[in-house]
């Protein structure tokens, strides 16, 4: 067998904000939602584009593209300046504690990498499973957010394929959640498309961090990083994309609502319920095994008063519906979907502030190996984020892919499909569970075969 092609790293540099906004040099303090992320991975997502047909020399195209990406990135960093900083920790002796914040003034900036790979778009998209080479389209492989003390808080990697360009961003999860991650990507695209003309951003980020009473100086009750940082290595997983058409999702929603005698269950709650049931069946769990379905819930609109949608930072909770494997499979899709609906409907300002109060009494940092178990499902990311609206002079992206980060048995990431109303799910399961899921009639009936055609 011939050895698979390896990625070639051609150049790298650091990009600083084009100029400094007033106040952008001050220390940037982190909220409880941010600090809990110190031991999880960076967010790694990226978009794959068709390379335009060669008009002139292809070298000129790539040189021009890289120049424009760097230039627009330096303007984007003016507005999203925390991403150009580094983490700093001040250790306090009495009581022993650590203050972690972002230093936006003493940093080389964000990193920009140009790499190449002798593969085609089809080599990446046509295999049933996502090829592991995709993990090398991102910087910060296996890095945890605490590594942002010595590593950039943002790296952009541009990987040139034979017929495509992949633009991958790895961003420190202490600085952004998914909402803010895509907010940055959208703004960068907007600046790129303005081609150097001064533009006022459609949605400027709001950097005023939200703190419970007593902020913004929040100390962690640890003196050494070993007390709160751990490294997570995923088990052997298959990773596969499944496509659900808007028609298929509408059918699931109608079925779930009819079975629960309601009209309140959303499309996403119906799809999540299907995934929870079918993965649980594929795992052949004991009847009395406890299983959770966790959803990443955006807190911005749930706070009273609301946080603005353009609040830049983390404002998410992982809520969980819980039952036993036996109960989940004995009941209907609508029963499971209603449990998820109740979880979301009851996620109020009171719940959010209760979590914050508990954190302030006893601060903690999430550990990936303890957060998730092999009997549960975690629905991450969101089909609501504007992902395919990001353009960099090559038309709309043909696909979205992610890196190694934050993947484990039962992790499902939801992305908007390319056609309106459709959803792509990126699912991670051990090989035996994935095989069982692929022959699960309820699940495969809902999957749209167009995912085989891309």
UniProtKB/TrEMBL annotation:
GO molecular function: acyltransferase activity
Keyword Transferase tagged: yes
Domain of life: Eukaryota
Lyase recorded as keyword: no
InterPro entries registered for this protein in UniProt: CAT-like_dom_sf (IPR023213), Sec_Metabolite_Acyltrans (IPR051283)
One Pfam family hit: Transferase
Protein keywords: Acyltransferase, Transferase
Family: Belongs to the plant acyltransferase family.
PANTHER family noted in UniProt: FAMILY REGULATORY PROTEIN, PUTATIVE (AFU_ORTHOLOGUE AFUA_3G14730)-RELATED (PTHR31896), HXXXD-TYPE ACYL-TRANSFERASE FAMILY PROTEIN (PTHR31896:SF12)
Protein name stated in the entry: Acetyltransferase
Native organism: Lithocarpus litseifolius
